[in-house]
Amino acid sequence: MKLIVPFAPGGFTDVVARILGNKLSQSMGQQFVVENKAGAGSTIGTDFVAKAPPDGYTLLMVSSTHVISPWLYKNLPYDPVKSFAAVGKLVDSPYVLLVHPKVPAKNVQEFIALAKAAPEKIHYASSGNGSAQHLMGACSPP
Q1: How many domains does the chain have?
Q2: Which of 29, 37, 97, 103: disulfide with 45, CB 3.0–4.6 Å?
């Protein structure tokens, strides 16, 4: 059986998939192979699974990008709801905003004020364009 992860190896979704794949292999006595098919904000791997035979041997590990993608891509090659059958929710993953200790902001409000005062000096990292992390960093509060 294949467990497709539509992200590069080493990320949160991949780690969860590998733990799950190992547990499923042990409990079912059948090898679950985790296969990464990264790219295009997870749509490459997701499309692969949408087009796989509907025999239950190819599973998809999704994240929040599964519900974000229809809003970012004009023409997805699959329907994010109708092309899949949900099996279950596995994890919740909170987000945390961190800054270097030398940044003169002690809370979110101070950080927002600092970013608005000098936007060219504030940079952030995310897991990629269209990811939840990217959208949180790109969207400013009202």
Answers
A1: 2
A2: 37
